[in-house]
């Protein structure tokens, strides 16, 4: 495929970065995983666009960019509704859309969620760091978009109108209930504090970011504060010495020494990633078996969506 200029950045937005599924296999060496905060939305965008599920997309946070199309291409936007428009006209989300050279793609007023994902059929041309194009500025891997940047890629024209049924599109709420697998430091907390944690709501602090979501609410101080540092999973919930819960997210540190009361089920992480500052979160216990069942169901949905997409592609070639 021939590399072409896709977009010129007119306005970059507050945090617009390339993200994929993260750099796996290097956390043991102190390299953060990073990757998309909402991996479900990223994968759906890529599947609809006809790309590999793991391809990089633009992750667009709350205040999005203005992009000038430098060629004709097929795009897909998923995730948060940031009122995307093309030349002032609303663009359908969770659907393949054709835009022409010279069109202006604008992300405007926030409607719901936090992070939108933009895929281009054929994919973006992005530098890779340890096998991933995910930007992690804290680690020196890439940077956010800047004014007058030129985004390049390998555009291919795909059938427009390929979409996810409206009933299957996530609805991003300002109050969410999150499934949590308890452990590994359950015995560091009293039964009363564990009950508090699973019954009291928490608010997402304003200083939450891609590294972690700080939760404000009833403190639950661990009986033991010091633990052996160990690897931190995506969605791990640490409790600081002050009793503050922190949900560790995509750009989390590789290891941590605070006790963890549990880990968010992988299928519920997008709910956290799309929860606005000031949003409310509460937790419910879930077994490992139930979390695995939910993960299998989500994977089956993505596989079926990919098969549906391939069926349309075969029909186009027939």
TrEMBL record:
GO terms for molecular function: ATP binding; hydrolase activity. Keywords: ATP-binding, Hydrolase, Nucleotide-binding. The keyword Nucleotide-binding applies. InterPro entries: CT_A_B (IPR003778), Cyclophilin-like_dom_sf (IPR029000), PxpC (IPR052708). The keyword Nucleotide-binding applies. Pfam families: CT_A_B. Residues 28-301 form the Carboxyltransferase domain. Signal peptide: none annotated. This is Biotin-dependent carboxyltransferase family protein. It comes from Oceanobacillus jordanicus.
